[in-house]
């Protein structure tokens, strides 16, 4: 079992908050969510897509990842509902009447991500056999938005995210390398760096692996003892530094971030993100304890409990303040859960150390911690067969780190508190990973820098002013009826926008809808 460095982690936790003396109880709908220091205001303009007006879930995966082409005023969105998968092209020239122009077939293995730089669109396309190497497909975008395939390139196994470097000279894919469901094949995770500096036709691919770390002592999390670290890492998302010299890669299941040198095209380091202490961040950790009072209004309780949780970010982004690079993370959480191997276990099924949990008989009740999902591979620090520390999945927050891996901010339990007050919190997810912060966008608007974080399970986009990375300020919680499970966001600058206003686009996986919001200065 891996031992965590609690002295370092305690410093991280205490720098972002203090403990609550007692549980908090939130009445649904009893709070005005808008910040007292709100600088912008976001209004819903239009929702569109195949899922509009349809039963929820009927068009799941119709839209997940999208990007915008300013020249043609077109939005391009992945569509995993179609078979084979497509990239859908929408005309946004009239934002009150978005129109689907065409669906472009990109391959039988699906399409996981798209990204646009100038007049190029890059699509991440897994192989039809998911454990084989996938593809990066690069398209030219015509003046009218039509796509023409320029190049198809082999990259690593299961490319799940694609992005361009800021200078446009490279395309990068995060290749998860997930095992098959039987866990008999476990490919290596990797990052493919595609050099297009001499043109797409002359593109070259370098795939950076993690083998150099296999034999080195490391604090990076591994779940399966028989696997190498190179097999265990599953690159999820890539953020590129402003100078296009480094890439920061979230390794979600490993609770880590890797650093890739884009000059040498090699992985040069990894950070263990440590653990979040729920003694200092009261959370709702049970889906069974919600009380109904005499007025039939739900009251949701949060607990300050002896529980640690891995941050495990999905989306990450990089931005600069005063010449310094900061990394923003959406701390969703994820486990390894396959037919051939699963690390998931609920607290009720753990044998807890009596000294660490003197009230263990109470702790394992469903109304307390019993329902919380944890990892069977974590928490037995002394190797005696019982669990000394309950360790869960996901930070249920967003965090900001320096380029050296030092956490300077964590939103603690704000997402839970705000959505509980708003009535958008889903108590059925309390035992899992809560609201599951997943997607993330960053944009400078009127001199301030904002983060837009999607909460997949609460169907909310949280907005923060992150101009001061050590002191972000909550702005607004954004949601709209019928838009369920936001996956990611696209911010369209005012100078590129169809209506001359800054727009926020939210892609909603479960409802199969795309929401257009307008960002106004308050």
A few lines on this structure:
The chain is mainly beta and 522 residues long.
What does this structure look like?
The chain is mainly beta and 522 residues long. The chain has a single domain (6-521), classed as YVTN repeat-like/Quinoprotein amine dehydrogenase (Methylamine Dehydrogenase, Chain H, 7 Propeller), CATH 2.130.10. The protein is 5% helix and 42% strand. The longest helix has 9 residues, at 6-14. It is globular, with a radius of gyration of 22 Å. The N and C termini lie far apart (51 Å). Residues 1-33 and 291-297 have low confidence and may be disordered.
State the major sheet: 4 strands, antiparallel
Mean pLDDT, all residues: 90
Quaternary structure state of the chains depicted: single chain
Domains, number: 1
CATH class identity: Mainly Beta
- Envelope shape: globular
Helix content: under 10%
The N- and C-terminal alpha carbons lie at a distance of 51 Å
Biggest sheet strand line-up:
2-36-35-34
The CATH superfamily name is YVTN repeat-like/Quinoprotein amine dehydrogenase
Low-confidence stretches: 1-33, 291-297
Structural class category: mainly beta
What is the CATH architecture descriptor? 7 Propeller
Q: What's the total helix number?
A: 4
As a whole number of angstroms, the C-alpha radius of gyration is: 22 Å
Examine the coordinates and then state which fold CATH places here, giving the name of the CATH topology: Methylamine Dehydrogenase, Chain H
Number of strand elements: 36
> How big a fraction of the residues is strand?
35-45%
């Amino acid at each position: 079992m891996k031992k965590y460095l609690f002295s370092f982690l305690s410093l991280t936790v205490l720098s972002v908050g203090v403990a609550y003396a007692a549980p908090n109880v939130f009445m649904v709908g009893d709070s005005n969510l808008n910040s007292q220091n709100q600088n912008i205001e976001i209004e819903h303009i239009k929702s569109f897509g195949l899922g509009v007006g349809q039963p929820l879930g009927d068009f799941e995966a119709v839209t997940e990842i999208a990007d915008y082409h300013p020249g043609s005023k077109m939005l391009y969105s992945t569509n995993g509902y179609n078979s084979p998968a497509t990239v859908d092209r929408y005309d946004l020239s009239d934002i009150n009447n978005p129109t689907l122009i065409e669906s472009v077939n990109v391959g039988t293995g699906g399409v996981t991500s798209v990204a646009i730089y100038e007049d190029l669109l890059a699509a991440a396309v897994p192989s039809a056999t998911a454990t084989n190497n996938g593809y990066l497909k690069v398209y030219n975008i015509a003046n009218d938005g039509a796509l023409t395939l320029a190049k198809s390139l082999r990259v690593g196994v299961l490319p799940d995210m694609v992005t361009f470097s800021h200078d446009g000279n490279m395309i990068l894919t995060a290749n998860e390398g997930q095992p098959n469901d039987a866990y008999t094949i476990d490919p290596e995770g990797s990052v493919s760096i595609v050099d297009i500096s001499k043109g797409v036709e002359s593109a070259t691919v370098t795939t950076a692996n993690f083998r150099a770390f296999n034999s080195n002592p490391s604090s990076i999390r591994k779940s399966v003892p028989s696997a190498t670290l190179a097999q265990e890492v599953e690159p999820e998302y890539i953020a590129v530094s402003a100078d296009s010299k480094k890439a920061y890669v979230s390794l979600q299941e490993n609770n880590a971030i890797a650093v890739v040198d884009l000059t040498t095209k090699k992985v040069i380091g990894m950070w263990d993100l440590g653990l979040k202490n729920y003694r200092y961040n009261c959370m709702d950790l049970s889906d069974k304890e919600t009380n109904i009072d005499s007025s039939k209004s739900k009251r949701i309780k949060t607990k300050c409990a002896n529980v640690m949780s891995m941050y495990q970010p999905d989306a990450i982004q990089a931005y600069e303040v005063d010449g310094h690079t900061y990394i923003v993370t959406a701390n969703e959480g994820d486990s390894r859960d396959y037919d051939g191997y699963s690390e998931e276990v609920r607290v009720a099924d753990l044998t807890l150390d009596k000294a660490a949990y003197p009230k263990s008989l109470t702790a394992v009740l469903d109304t307390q911690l019993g329902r919380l999902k944890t990892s069977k591979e974590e928490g037995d620090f002394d190797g005696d067969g019982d669990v000394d520390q309950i360790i869960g999945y996901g930070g249920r927050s967003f965090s900001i780190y320096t380029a050296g891996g030092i956490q300077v901010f964590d939103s603690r339990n704000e997402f839970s508190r705000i959505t509980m007050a708003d009535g958008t919190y889903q108590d059925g997810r309390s035992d899992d990973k809560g609201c599951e912060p997943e997607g993330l966008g960053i944009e400078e608007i009127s001199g301030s820098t904002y983060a837009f974080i999607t909460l997949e399970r609460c169907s909310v986009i949280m907005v923060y002013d992150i101009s001061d990375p050590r002191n972000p300020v909550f702005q607004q919680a954004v949601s709209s009826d019928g838009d369920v499970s936001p996956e990611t966001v696209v911010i369209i600058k005012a100078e590129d926008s169809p209506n001359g206003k800054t727009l926020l686009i939210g892609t909603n996986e479960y409802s199969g809808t795309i929401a257009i919001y307008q960002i106004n200065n308050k």
